[in-house]
Sequence to fold (623 residues):
Amino acid sequence: MEIELVEIRDFLAQRPPFDALPEEQLNQLPKSLEIRYLRRGSLFPPADTTQGFIYILRSGAIELRDDEDNLVEKLAEGGLYTTDCQLIDFSRASHGLAVEDSLIYQLPCYVLTTLRKTEPAFDRHFAESIRDRLKQAVRTLQDYGEDKNCVAEMTVEVSDLIKKTPVTIDINSTIRQAAELMSDKNVSSVMILKGTKLAGIITDRDLRKRCIAAGVSVDQPVSQIMTTNLETIQEGTMAIQALMTMTRLHVHHLPVKRGDEVVGMLTATDLARHQSTNSAYLASDIRKAATVDDLAHVSERLPDLQFHLANSNASALHIGEAISSITDSLTARLIEMAEAELGPPPVRYVWLCGGSQARGEQTSHSDQDNAMLISDEMKPEHADYFERLANRVSDGLNACGFIYCPGDAMATNPKWRQTLRIWRKYFNAWINKPEPMALMLSSIFFDLRPIYGEVELFKELQSDILSKTRGNGIFTAYMAANALHHRPPLGFFRTFVLIHDGKHDDTFDIKHRGIVPITDIARVFALDQGLTPVNTTERLEAAAETTVLSRDMGENLVDALEFIASIRIYHQAEQIRKGLKPDNYLSPEELSDLERRHLKDAFRVIQEMQDAMENRYQGGRFV
Fold:
């Protein structure tokens, strides 16, 4: 190797990220470099370059400045400038100037890209920088909020509300022993364990109604009066979600878990002590509603709730979960009203929501996507009952501002009101022969969540679906190709690609060009790996624990989703403030320079992942 090349190699070998390269790569690197000399006062990057480079400052000094000529960064010996190369640009600098005579090395972008793909340690330097800076962008955006009390009360987690250690008793204990334990611990409930597993609970209400009033001896085992088939929540669940779950189930106690371990009991009293008037009034009014008109009046306050949450430092994730939880409760109350009018269902069924509501990513008054899964015990004479039930619930949702699905993906459509056997047949056809219609329906029916009824029916269907999608190369190939249809609105020169159709001139659709691409990517990973989460963030986090998605890219996608969704939430909040109907059409002029820059960065994260899916997917499998 020539002396000059050896000197360059030795220089790079002492500086990150090149010090992470193996010796063979390091020896080859100087041959790919170009050397440039910049006199003091020269523009940086050099204006005569015809391709993108990563620049390494060998000697001298370069100042980087923003659009208002404020100093952003000063490069010294060994400094890197990667804006032209890196797929994601977080720099606020728009131009630079050599303030001393400077010697720079230029490394073509394609060399950087190749090294990032083949050398994980080298790539980690850039991935960590991306992750940290995008997280900071999200924090900065959330700091714009003013109503801090609203988010503190609405998005507090259950783990912050349960202060006592769980009070438990063995399933072989007597009712008397359980009552004595509750009295000693001054609690209103006790959890019943069979070994280390939660078997049921007994509340003070159970003691009164199922024991004393029913004449059951206190010397009988607790299993005689305990409540089984419990609904539980995880300790990271938002308080508002827990409140809506209690409202939907008409219960006052919810066991709290950390994974499979029971860590406490959440009571209605705990929530009442900490919840805001917004959520408490909404939950109370939903519970007390006697007519559809009553629920419609409650639903009218959803835009205000979204506005107040957006005006706080609530994350887009929390806002989506809060709105979706309230929609769940509205739906459940409508079903209860319908059942009260029609009588009890003739066979078991479960009401399912789809789309953004199922993912917990809803904004106020989206259109409705729902379905009904009915037990195979259903007979022809039962069809009329479920048709009338579906019509009442769907009409009620429409009255509450959740308009009918334009594509008719609702339980009112007989096609989406079927038995378990038929639903299995549907999914088998979609998975084995993923035609365009199946792919179009994937955003709804591969994102389903039970709202009301026999949840076990849904679990049986979900298990069957995931067993067929897991590792199914052909199906995943079609899903991956479908996920590439929605591209971020970025042009070749990092400019926004805007709509020019007369109605939404000079805007872009932030939902379909920003949020939907990430949602589609997460769905592909979840189905390919057989993952049960439906929420996009949870899917990405779960996928990052597998081989299909790196943890770095998983975190980058989560942060990109949070930033894009936050921009959308704030855009809609401003429309609500002005008395306008919220939409997804965003003009770049609405954004600050910082927001535009970071939004482009987030879009580039999506582009990088879409490019990776396109490049890595071969022969029906990710490699």
Q: What stands out?
A: The CA atoms of residues 94 and 462 lie 50 Å apart. The longest helix spans residues 316-342. Residues 146-151, 619-623 have pLDDT under 50 and may be disordered. The longest strand covers residues 53-59.
